């Protein structure tokens, strides 16, 4: 018999009606697999949906994972019946609500805020992606992976319960309008945390390819510690002599590696490319794909990559929200790393463990002004610092002109007495030296760099 396909929205009306959901009959438990230490993740994905045996089979297979199996009624209590006041957002998976767990609900469970994510069966992802996330996060544990506290699997309902990440996603924090811009050191801390999460996956005993690394899947706690979330598209890495995993192309446009899009060959280097795009977003403050920009600038990686190894052009693409307050050396090294990660040749990209080593010192660089052009509000008199500098420059030139005029007057007097001119190359150099001396004095009194460079452009001294 075909199961009724209901969306998550059918849950909310039941809250007010108080309808009790009947649980399926419990089947006889299966014998435990002696090889549970590395149980077949792929085999888990072959479980039928929504067979009545699924919930029991899943909980039996995940014994020892410390995951809690919640009932739907418990989740209603946790989220206050999925109240709109607790609504956090909605993505391709489904809506997310904030909740709170205390020991009254489940003895022995630490009191804590949680994020409850419901699978929308009419959305972009489905049962298989939900199951993939449960299986992977049940086995994987790392400071830079979001912690899965438990799940709910009742009838057609599929729910995940995570630790609550108060600062939300990197995407919302980086691109949200009217928000305080992230400082340089915080951006590098986020990049480093995300890199450590990917490195852990790639270097695991049974390697994992994340496959959907992007800014919206990087969550931040109150201390801006980055944690990877949403493992619905994760895949086990190639085994034995295999160089890649062949799979249908899935991911997010703008982040997916070009060779994966072309061939469907998935490797750890596909994740490295995606990381390079996110690192580029942190450097530039631009989205990976932005249709509102001119055609040549819509794809961030294609537009910025040629400029990443050119220091003079790098300043043009740095995030203007930083207002020049970043480490110039750190920015160059970060840009060079992004350039490596975005290489069109996968074998030339660095391993994530090497990426971590490169990023570790970048957050220690102090946020210093690198002299970028920043708009300055005019003063009450209507003048700006630039106008003041131009005035000082004109005064300096006028003083030099006066000095030269006095010198030429003495030369004319000398010519009148003797009938010929004694002006030589040394006298022509005198005006340049006098001008430079005057400008040097102005520099000591606070003139900007424009005053120093302009005369050298006008007078080429060998």
Automatic annotation (TrEMBL):
Pfam families: PK_Tyr_Ser-Thr. GO terms for biological process: defense response. Required for pathogen-associated molecular pattern (PAMP, e.g. chitin and flg22)-triggered immunity (PTI) involving reactive oxygen species (ROS) accumulation and triggering plant defense, including defense-related gene expression (e.g. PR1 and LOX). Ensures specific recognition of the EPD1 effector of Verticillium dahliae, resulting in a hypersensitive response known as effector-triggered immunity (ETI), characterized by the activation of programmed cell death to limit infection by the pathogen. Residues 82-363 form the Protein kinase domain. GO terms for cellular component: plasma membrane. Keywords: ATP-binding, Cell membrane, Hypersensitive response elicitation, Kinase, Membrane, Nucleotide-binding, Phosphoprotein, Plant defense, Serine/threonine-protein kinase, Transferase. It comes from the Eukaryota. Its EC number is 2.7.11.1. Residues 439-450 have a biased composition (Polar residues). It is found in: Cell membrane. Residues 376-462 are annotated as: Disordered. This is non-specific serine/threonine protein kinase. The lineage of its organism: Eukaryota, Viridiplantae, Streptophyta, Embryophyta, Tracheophyta. CDD domains: STKc_IRAK. Residues 404-425 have a biased composition (Basic residues). It is an enzyme of class 2 (transferase).
């Amino acid at each position: 018999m075909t199961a009724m396909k209901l969306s998550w929205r059918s849950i909310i009306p039941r809250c007010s009606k108080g309808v009790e959901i009947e649980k399926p009959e419990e089947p006889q438990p299966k014998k435990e697999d002696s090889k549970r230490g590395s149980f077949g993740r792929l085999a888990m994905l072959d479980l039928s949906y929504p067979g009545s045996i699924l919930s029991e089979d899943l909980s039996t297979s995940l014994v020892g994972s410390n995951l809690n199996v919640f009932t739907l009624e418990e989740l209603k209590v946790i989220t206050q019946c999925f109240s709109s006041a607790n609504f956090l957002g909605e993505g391709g998976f489904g809506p997310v609500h904030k909740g709170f767990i205390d020991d009254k609900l489940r003895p022995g469970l630490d009191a804590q805020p949680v994020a409850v994510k419901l699978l929308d069966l009419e959305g972009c992802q489905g049962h298989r992606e939900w199951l993939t996330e449960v299986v992977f996060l049940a086995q994987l544990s790392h400071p830079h992976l979001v912690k899965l506290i438990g799940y709910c699997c009742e009838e057609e309902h599929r729910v995940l319960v995570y630790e609550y990440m108060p600062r939300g996603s990197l995407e919302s924090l980086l691109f949200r309008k009217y928000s305080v811009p992230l400082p340089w050191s915080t951006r590098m801390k986020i990049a480093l945390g995300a890199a450590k999460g990917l490195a852990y996956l790639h270097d695991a005993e049974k390697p994992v390819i994340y496959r959907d690394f992007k800014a919206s899947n990087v969550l931040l706690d109150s201390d801006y510690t980055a944690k990877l979330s949403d493992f619905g598209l994760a895949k086990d890495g190639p085994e034995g002599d295999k160089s890649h995993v062949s799979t249908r192309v899935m991911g997010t446009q703008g982040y997916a590696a070009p060779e994966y899009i072309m061939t469907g060959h998935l490797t750890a280097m596909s994740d490295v490319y995606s990381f390079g795009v996110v690192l580029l977003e942190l450097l530039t403050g631009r989205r990976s794909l932005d249709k509102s920009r001119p055609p040549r600038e819509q794809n961030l990686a294609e537009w910025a990559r040629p400029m990443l190894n050119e220091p003079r052009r790098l300043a043009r693409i740095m995030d203007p929200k930083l207002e020049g307050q970043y480490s110039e050396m750190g920015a160059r090294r970060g840009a060079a790393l992004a350039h490596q990660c975005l290489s069109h040749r996968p074998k030339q990209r660095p391993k994530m463990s090497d990426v971590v080593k490169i990023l570790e010192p970048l957050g220690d660089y102090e946020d210093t002004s690198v002299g970028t052009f920043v708009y300055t509000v005019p003063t009450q008199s209507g003048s700006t610092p630039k106008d003041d500098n131009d005035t000082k420059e004109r005064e300096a030139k006028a003083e030099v002109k006066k000095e030269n005029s006095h010198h030429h007057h003495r030369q004319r007097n000398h010519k009148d007495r003797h009938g010929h001119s004694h002006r030589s190359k040394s006298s022509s150099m005198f005006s340049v030296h006098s001008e430079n001396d005057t400008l040097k004095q102005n520099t000591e009194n606070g003139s900007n760099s424009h005053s120093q460079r302009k005369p050298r452009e006008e007078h080429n001294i060998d």
